[in-house]
UniProtKB/TrEMBL annotation:
This is Two pore channel protein 2. It comes from the Eukaryota. Keywords: Calcium, Calcium channel, Calcium transport, Endosome, Glycoprotein, Ion channel, Ion transport, Lysosome, Membrane, Repeat, Transmembrane, Transmembrane helix, Transport, Voltage-gated channel. Residues 55-278, 398-657 form the Ion transport domain. It comes from Circaetus pectoralis (black-chested snake-eagle).
């Protein structure tokens, strides 16, 4: 009946609008049962279960054999780690696989058979599950004794396929690779030519005493290439040139030319190319997201225009305001946007909406998320009004910053004076007294600000929440100190009573006071701009962090399989340590093969036999025993993590900073309004709106939706 059709159209419009809000594709089934399943699948509960499952299967690597469940990483003091019995982690893994099987089945059903064969991600999803389940069966048949587990390397794929933004980012990176390859090739030519020059310059001579450069760095082609590759990262600078420079100062010209051409020109050129190309591809990706949003809104309009209550019009389709209000009641969307659209509809004098008016209403989704602070309380007393004006004025905040600076300076003075004193000689009376005074001022300042601004307005500012929380913590610690050790007095020395000694309590208070000094950031415009840029990267660029986790995880698992048990006295390489190890090497940009060799030679100068043995065994592990694998592994890791990924992060940092700088120059900040930007809004000013012809053409290609016109 017409009532059933109207309910179907309403539900279709609800789903299409929710697709537009989340930038999802609308190419899915649109019958009643499929729409219910679709909304259930994308509900918060289902998505939370899926995210939890992905987290659990990734976290299994920390407890699987070899387990990382030890307090210390020092092999001399580490107790044998607990390794789960065979079948425990495998059972958890099987449950995760079952959830993924339900996930891929629902996705495949919802998009339909024709769309399934076009979706490479879903096919890869099924293939990954098949390989993982096969490997899981093989693992159980060997009673969990096999060393190579392919499914562990494939686990990051489950994280990757679950995020549309991560897929777009990966596609952008993939599109940027050809342009990056040209510079990397030029870098390889530069490295190869200078390697040949180095082997000719530092060739072996008859005088063995003059061959230190040849012995240490340029004995053969692999060593020469590795030495210059590490020099490109500046990890062995100036060690690599010291023997040659000691022999003849003119040799420094070779190393200067290599460093200038490689580091100052080629590496920075690579950053520029990555910034330019990746920004272009990311812009295209965001443009496609905008098209998805406009397409979802237009699809909602088209199905609502098919309602029986809507009067037919040969020239143009219309949607009734009542039908849209009915849809808005069912749509899950941000309250701010829903209220703004509802307000616009109530202010509208017409009963019917055209396609243009309908689309314009939902442009509210593209606007900045605005957080307006609550109003200050209105006092009737003239005295209270003056108090409110005085303590709500920015100058009162500046006075608090000056007091915080004075507190920091006083702590520095006391620390310098007591730096060389023994704990028994230290008198904490002065430090305790000044801490007591400043903490009381911080408490008074917080209370006066609450009086002037009101509690709701005070808490609406992040800087005030940060300031107030630290003030409360400092007050609690100070009260606890007085309760245990009494009030400050001459000869107030540290004694160990309870959990912390007096000196530990004072140090903790002082660390929080130093941390509290960060409150000055909002008052320094340029510093605030830098900090908000970094915070926006953390909040909005989770997709890039996700891909970074994927890369780290895959390399950590590969490293365990390659190097596990290579040197038995050092114990098995555990996942957690290898993960942290990769994290450190990627940002310090050190090639571990040569790093360990340098450490081994350096430690040989000292009599600490144990330290020498540890470093030399590490060098033996990574170079002598499995040198070919180790060098290839670490060079590939350096290329992906440092050369490519760090430059991508720099490109995104630049884009975000330039965007904020332009907005700062063109718009004055408003004191009572905070603007919260997303990745899509970052490029909003340069995006092109899709035409009506493009939208209608795409809608007519929908595999499951039949339009009336």
């Amino acid at each position: 009946g017409s009532g059933t059709d109207n309910d179907l159209y309403i539900n279709q419009a609800v789903v299409f609008i929710e697709d537009a809000i989340q930038y999802r594709s609308i190419n899915h089934r649109v019958d009643s049962k499929s729409l219910w399943l679709y909304r259930w699948y994308y509900s918060r509960t289902c998505q939370w279960i899926l995210s939890l499952t992905i987290t659990i299967i990734l976290a299994l690597a920390f407890i699987e054999n070899p387990s990382s469940l030890t307090v210390t990483s020092d092999v001399r003091y580490r107790l044998p780690a607990w390794n789960p019995p065979c079948g425990l982690t495998e059972s958890i893994e099987l449950l995760c696989f079952l959830v993924f099987m339900v996930d891929v089945s629902v996705k495949s059903y919802l998009i339909g058979w024709e769309e399934f064969w076009k979706n490479k991600w879903l096919m890869a999803y099924i293939l990954t599950l098949i390989v993982s389940l096969t490997d899981w069966i093989v693992s159980l048949s060997f009673l969990c004794a096999e060393d190579v587990r392919i499914r562990r390397i494939l686990r990051p794929f489950f994280l990757l396929q679950n995020s549309s933004m991560m897929k777009k980012t990966l596609k952008s990176i993939n599109s940027t690779l050809p342009e990056m390859a040209s510079v990397v090739l030029l870098l390889a030519v530069h490295l190869s030519l200078f390697t040949m020059f180095a082997m000719l310059l530092f060739a072996r001579t008859k005088d063995g005493q003059q061959d230190k450069e040849w012995v240490g760095y340029f004995r053969n082609l692999p060593d020469s290439l590795t030495s210059l590759l590490v020099l490109l990262t500046t990890a062995n600078n100036p060690d690599v040139m010291i023997p040659a420079y000691s022999k003849n100062r003119a040799y420094s010209i070779f190393f200067i030319l290599f460093t200038v051409l490689g580091n100052l020109f080629l590496m920075n050129l690579l950053t520029a190319i990555i910034y330019n190309q990746f920004r272009g591809y990311l812009l295209k990706s965001v443009q496609s997201s905008l098209f998805r949003r406009r397409l979802g809104i237009r699809a909602a309009f088209e199905v609502l225009s098919s309602l029986k209550e809507t009067p037919a019009n040969a020239q143009q389709s219309y949607v009734s305001v009542g039908a849209l209000l009915q849809v808005l009641q069912k749509v899950e969307m941000d309250c701010r946007c829903k209220q703004a659209i509802t307000r616009s509809l109530k202010m509208c004098s017409c009963d019917q909406l055209s396609a243009t008016q309908f689309q314009k209403l939902f442009e509210e989704l593209d606007k900045d998320a605005i957080k307006q602070h609550p109003p200050s309380p209105e006092y009737q007393s003239h005295f209270m009004q003056k108090m409110q004006f005085a303590f709500g004025h920015p100058y009162f905040g500046y006075l608090g910053n000056v007091v915080a600076l004075a507190n920091i300076i006083s702590i520095c003075v006391v620390l310098v004076m007591d730096a060389d004193k023994q704990p028994s000689e230290r008198d904490d009376f002065f430090l305790g007294a000044i801490n007591c005074f400043f903490i009381l001022y911080y408490l008074l300042e917080m209370l006066l600000k609450i009086l002037a601004l009101g509690l709701k307005r005070y808490l609406s500012y992040p800087s005030n929440r940060f300031d107030g929380l630290l003030t409360v913590i400092l007050l609690v610690l100070e009260i606890a100190t007085f309760a245990v050790y009494g009030f400050p007095h001459p000869g107030w020395r540290p004694e160990f009573m309870g959990l912390l000694s007096l000196w530990d309590m004072v140090r903790l208070v002082n660390m929080l006071i130093v941390f509290r000094f960060l409150r000055i950031i909002p008052n320094m415009k340029f510093m605030a701009l830098v900090v908000t840029t970094l915070l926006d990267l953390v909040k909005n660029l989770r997709a890039f962090a996700g891909i970074l986790v994927v890369v780290f995880y895959a390399f950590a698992i590969t490293g365990i399989m390659l190097f596990k048990g290579a040197v038995v006295p050092l114990g098995n390489i555990r996942f957690f340590y290898f993960f942290i190890f990769l994290f450190q090497t990627s940002f310090y940009i050190k090639i571990v093969v040569v790093y360990f060799k340098e450490k081994c030679d350096f430690m040989a100068l000292f009599s600490d036999f144990q330290a020498e043995v540890i470093y030399c065994l590490l060098y033996l592990l990574f170079v002598n025993l499995i040198c070919r694998w180790a060098k290839i592994y670490f060079v590939v890791w350096w290329l992906i993590s440092s050369v490519i990924w760090v430059n991508l992060f720099v490109a995104l940092l630049l884009e975000n900073f330039i965007h904020k700088w332009d907005r700062r120059c063109h718009r004055e900040p408003l004191s009572d309004i905070e603007y919260q930007r997303t990745v899509e809004l970052m490029f909003r000013d340069v995006l092109e709106e899709p035409t009506e012809e493009e939208l209608m053409e795409k809608l007519h290609q929908h595999p499951h939706l039949q339009l009336c016109r």
